[in-house]
Each structure stands twice: as structure tokens, then as C-alpha cells.
Amino acid sequence: MAELGRETAQDRVRFRGGGFAPGQRRGPALLVFAALIAFWQGGSSLGWINPLFLPSPAHIAQALYDVAASGELWRHFTASLGRILGGWAIGTAAGLALGTAMGLFTLARSIGMPLVSAIFPVPKIALLPLFILWFGIGEPSKLATIALGVFFPTVINCYSGIDGVARNLIRMAQSFDLPPRDIVRKVVLPGAMPTIIAGFRISSSVALILVVAAEMIGAEYGLGAFVLQAGHLMATDQLLAGVVCLSVLGLIFGAAITALERSLLRWR
Amino acid sequence: MELRLEAVGHRYDDLTVLEDISLTVQAGETLALIGPSGCGKSTLLGILGGLLQPSSGRVVAEGAVPADCLNPLTYVFQDFALLPWRTVADNVSLALEHHTLSGNERHSRIAEVLERTKLSDFSSAYPRQLSGGMRQRVGIARALAVRPAVLLMDEPLSALDAQTRDLLMEDFLDLWLREKTTAVYVTHNLTEALRLADRVAVLSRRPGRLRETVPLAVPQSERGRPEAQAELARLQQHLWTLIKEEARSAEREMADG
Questions:
Q1: In terms of CA atoms, which chain A residue is nearest residue B143?
Q2: How far is residue B234's CA from residue A32's CA, in Å, rounded to a whole number?
Q3: DSSP at A32
Q4: Which CATH topology does B1-65+150-168+179-257 take?
Q5: What is the ipTM of this complex?
Q6: What residues of A are in contact with residue B75 (Cβ under 8 Å)?
Q7: B25 has a pLDDT exceeding 80
């Protein structure tokens, strides 16, 4: 018995609390990314991949350089960027206005809620032909499509952000007799800001999708038009160069929103 | 300033939480409001300061308000209610910004209350960087900045650990007993009530009625002395018998019962 007791007493307690806490490192991501491109380039150079269907990374880079050097790319890029910024600004301004009203007032909420639920699921690009009839084929119909697409997610994020503001903070402000205007400005809107900015990520990607779609339907310039034309000419290297530009555009928006979060939400 | 509750009752839908409460908070006294959980003491405090509309009865404030008082009935909240996006100094400033104060006057008031609550070194810290005790100090600094006529405190120490609670209690005594600010202090903790109050009002449970008000004859400054202990122990025993049965049934009640 004594021996058995000593044996069990010698058992070391096994550590069993590890794992389930993923971190993030930069190295493996870069390595896999580089390997993927190298593999693709290798496949193309060895003739395994038909360049007509999938041009090599070097070809795409060359095409990108060519259209950039001719100034053509810049024209398409700025046309798309202008539409996105314009449409996004209109949709966001209107969305924040209605979203704030719905967050604060019973009447606005009673009217706005069913309206939003009814129109939100409609794919906005389906309304572009209607907007073309209303506003003509030019810029306004594209801006309207993008603005409408941006409007609904902004409304939803804005009022749910306001709903999420802690009641006790509003009661506190009331207990110090802050005027309602100040409560909105100093308590409600800053409290809703994280949710509103998170909504910007959704609405900016909606704007990016819609600008490409709208430009494919009817535009002379713009990345969507550029990609479509390249497709018609089977210029897949230019097509993919356009896609690279769209991806860069998306990354720029993401970075801009992150910067906005850093400066406005420092307190978190 | 004196606050008078006149036959105040309150109900949420079918549930009567407070019934026929008449009670006067006298100028300069600290009144502790105790009772088992669910007796409506926080509701009563909300009614006292005008944050809740009573179903029946009314609250009357009587007496002059000091000239420099910006917000006569001022709350200190259990969960501190600090704006996380404002620094300590700006949280205090929130209570002052909508009043017509010169910039200088505002800054000097903020500096003064931060000094009194020992927060001067933390004026540009954000709430998340502070411990619970420090956060409640900010809540108290904010309340003091408006020079309140009556302080309404809703379990201000309940969210804190025991040691922090003792430390802050000492500070409370320093801060407002010296100046004889009128205060209503809601708590479920008998020790806090016996340490801080001039008078203890005991509420019964659902519907909350006023069972008894117990005056504490020993002044706060002498409650630490050995010769006061027998009397305090007697009072504690008395208060405990008043709420014990109801605390027991409160504890057995199901959430939606």
C-alpha cells in the first residue's frame, strides 16, 4: 500500500488548459501568398496554363503598367472613385438622417421600420433601368443606384447603434438636466458611433459592387466598363488588371475606415 | 433642502412595487434607505429625483437652493454611468457644459472636485483605464461639481470589492458629512447604512411600504470608537430582524414569480 501511495504521489499533473486561442502572424501569410504567385507564374512559364484564359502574373503586371502609363487606367479609376464617393456620401447622409430619427422618435420608427424591411431586400441594381428612365444614362442614375444601396445598411446600423446605447447613460444625462439636443449630441451619437462605423464597412463594399454593376450596364469610363470591354476583346490580362484595381480600391476603403475608427474610437 | 414624499405609490402594470410612502428627508441629514432586494428602493430613489413618474402621490422639494448649485437633485449611480469616450475631466465637465459658466469657472470647478476626490493625477485618463473604485470617484466628482442640494445615491458601492468599499466609505464621510449635504443613500448593506446614515428608513418587500425609520443617535465621527459598538450592534440586530424574514422569502422567489 505504501509503495502504491508513493507511486501515485509522484504523478505530475498534466497541463490541459492549452489551445483555443488563435493568434495572428504575418510570416505564414506572406509565404503562402508568394508561393501561390510563384506557382501560378511557374505554371504559365512552363506552358501548363493557357494565357488566353489565365494570363501570368507578369503579364497582368505588364498590362497594368501599359494602361496606367497611357493614362487610360487613371481615367477609369477616377470615374469609378468619383461615383463611389458621390453615391456613398448621398446614401450615408440620408441614411444617418433617417436612422437617427428612427432611433429617437416613435413616429419615425413606426413608419420607417416596415418601409426599410420592404425595400431593403430588393437588389438595387434591378432599379438601375428605372433610374435610367428617370435621370438618363449619365451620372445621376448611377449615383442614385449606389446611394440607394448604401442608404439601407446605413439606416439599419444607425438605429440599431442608437438602440444599443446604454439606457443608464441617457438617464444619467437626464439627471443632470442636459437638454435633449445635448443628450443626442454628447451621449447618443457617440455611443452609436462604433456600430455606425462598422456599418461603413458594409456600405462601402455595397458601393463597390454597385459601381461595377452600374458601369457594366451603361458607361464609357469606369473600372466596370473597362473590365467588361476587356472581356469582349478577350484581353484577359487587361481584365485582370482591372480586377486588381478594384481590389486595391476595396483595400483603400477598408484602410480609410480603420483610420477613422482609430481616430474616433480611441477610447475603446 | 428638504425633500418630502407624500403618499407615493408606484406600479408596473399589475405589480405594485411601492405603496403609500410618506417620508421626509430633512435638510442636512443622510438618510439610508434599506430593504431586501425587490422592495422598490431604487424605484423610490428614481421617483425622489424625478427620473421616474410615480403612479400616485407626489414629491415636494422645499427650502432655498444655494446660489452656486447647478443641479439641486443629483444622482450617483451604482454602475457609475460614465461616458467611456470622455476622459475623467471631460466626464465631470459633461455636468457643467450646458450651464452658463465661464470657461475659467468650469475649469476651476473641475480641478477642485478632482482634487477633493483624489483624482487630479488621472484627469486625462479614460474610464476603462481606471479601477472600479476610481470610476465611482469620478461619479462622485461629477456629482459634487454641480454643488448639489441633495445627493441621491443608488447603491454606489455595490459594484465594488469589499476593501475598496471600506476605503470609499471613509472618503464619503470626509466629503459630505463635513459639509452636511443632504443625502439619500440606497443600500442593501446594513454596515454601510450604520456607518454613514443619520437615520435609516426600512422598506418592506413587495409592495414596498415604509416599515420603520430608525434614528442613529451616535454621530458618524464616533462610530469607530469601542464604546459605541454595543449600541451599533443593537441597532444592527434590530434592523436585521426587520428585514430578515423578507430577505429570506426574496431569496426563495423565482425570477418571474
A1: A176
A2: 76
A3: H
A4: Rossmann fold (3.40.50)
A5: 0.90
A6: 172, 175
A7: yes
